[in-house]
Amino acid sequence: MKPFIHLILLALLVVGCTNSIDRPTVESVVAVATTETPIPTLTLFPTATATTPPTTTATPKPTATVTATSTPTQSPTPLPVAHIQIVEEGNGSPLPDIIVTLTTAEGVSLTQTTDDAGIVIFADLEAGTSYMLQVVADGYLETTTSLTIVPGVNEVTVTAVAVPPTITPSPTAVATATLAPTATAVATAVATAAPVQPVAPPPPAASTAGNLLVNPSFESGTTGWGEPHNFDMRFYNATDSPQFVHSGNLAAFTFHPAPHRLSYNQYISGLTPGVTYRAGIWVKLWSSSGEDRTHSENPGAYAARLCLNPLGDAEPTRDTNICTGFVQPFDTWIYLSIDAVAAGETMAIILHSTPIGSDLPVHNETIWDDASLIIAPVASTPTPVPAGPPVRPAPVPFDGVTMRDSMTNARWVLEQVGGLLDRLYNGSTETCSEYNDYYGQLVSTATYDSVPAEWQSIYNEYIFAVENGINSNNGVASLCAQGGGQLGQQAYGEARMGINTSLEHLSPAIDNANTLLGQ
Predict the structure, then answer these.
(1) 20 to 30 A Cα–Cα from 25, which one of 8, 96, 116, 284?
(2) What is the rounded distance in angstroms from the CA atom of residue 135 to the CA atom of residue 121?
(3) How far, in Å, CA of 383 to CA of 365, rounded?
(4) What are phi and psi of 133, to 5 degrees?
(5) pTM for this one?
(6) Using CA atoms, how far apart are residues 142 and 135, in angstroms rounded to an integer?
(7) How far out from the chain centre does Cα 172 lie?
């Protein structure tokens, strides 16, 4: 039994071994396949979810931000802006609808009109560039000034000055004086007599004794004088244009249109603060639509004035300037004077001319000659203004030298009366007393009898000049004698034109007297 059992067990063992040899081969293949397949799969998952692409995508965003930040610093931010406001003199009210122009030295212009707040804004200007700022409006004086642009916002306020009523009487007075026919008669007489010299040569240059100005009569050209925008000064000479020279050989002139050349100036140093100084100058205008330089044909809205700046600032439109009223002496010389108290050791005298409206002919010139700056004189031994009509002194025996000296003194008194008249009209009521002092001296100017025939025409001009000055200023003198008050436009116009006309007659009469005296 045992051997049989052993055989059965052996058979079963053989069969089991055979089966175990075949199955492992299949199962190992399957095991290998299932083992190797996940390996690449696991490797790909980290690659697909790698953070590198988002990182590289995010990097340009900061770069783009940096570029946008750096762009404004290249030019838009520092480009200067001019913020200009136009206000009215006196009350400071903003002025709308005012034309404002900026012009470069090369002639490139930018123009805008002020808004309701009186403001214009010029953007994208160049730092360091100088512009001519021009303000034009009906009813206001044309204003020009220089403006140098700095980086950032340039805040500028311009004060517009209303056209003064001073100039209204001038055209009427000129027409009444019948200056045009007189000029025509002179030209005709000269043309008939001697075409070589159409106008009589001017007298020698005025004396510089006591005059604080350098080269006051322009005989040395530009010496001592300047122009605020560094343009060349212009001159007339007595040889070519004697009608435009008051004395000596040269006279300076400005002209329009020429926005940079509307004023000349001189700085005077070494003055005493607190002392009153007096400036004076002869001025003449030629404004014409024609080419006849002895006559203003259809003269326009063009005027001149004399200014002193006690602070030594030579710009013609400063609020600190003390100026005469604007005058329009077309084709005739008149004398302007103004007083100012020195604030320091330096003062500036300014010869200013400008359009006062848009009605301008092709030619507009202002001629200046024989300027002066002196310590303002104090009237000696004031003569009271007589009550009622002026009373002239009784005649004294004629003497040529004495009469010539009386004429010279009368001219000086008329000049002082005219200057004080300008200041009275511009509100300087404290000069009323001084005005009447000089007016009294004019009233007491000497008269003469037994005047020789060769002196008679000279004497007639002398008497006309004095009495015309007295009569035309009698109303103002009466106003001052009653305590002063507001000097009206018409009264000022009549008085001023009376002074101008008197000086026109008296100055050549003095020259003729000197000729007769051999001087």
Answers:
(1) 8
(2) 14
(3) 40
(4) -90, 120
(5) 0.46
(6) 6
(7) 28
